[in-house]
Design a protein that fits this description.
By secondary structure, the protein is mostly helical. A two-stranded antiparallel ribbon has the order 1-2.
Length: 93
């Protein structure tokens, strides 16, 4: 959708004329995006330009990054414990 908004500017630049994605750009005015919350409320998440507002993606990405961080910490703990037991086994043998 953002590509549609900048398409005219990009088409004047010779470097972008051959981009296949320009042919598939979508006018944001032809799209409606809604969010259904856990509480069951429905919210439109598009701004005045009809693009999806950054706050929605920021909230979703925060959840994704929190999950990734937690996984990373668990993975590091596992590797540390595993390394400890591997070293201990070598010393005992």
């Amino acid at each position: 959708m953002l590509g549609y908004l900048v398409k005219e500017k990009m088409l004047t630049d010779d470097d972008y004329v051959d981009l296949k994605s320009l042919k598939s750009s979508i006018d944001p005015k032809n799209v409606s995006v809604w969010q259904i919350t856990d509480e069951g409320t429905i919210n439109k998440i598009q701004g005045e330009d009809n693009l999806i507002e950054g706050n929605y993606f920021d909230a979703c990405m925060k959840d994704v990054m929190d999950d990734f961080h937690e996984y990373s910490i668990r993975s590091q703990r596992y590797e540390t414990e595993e390394s400890y037991f591997q070293r201990r086994e070598r010393v005992e043998n």
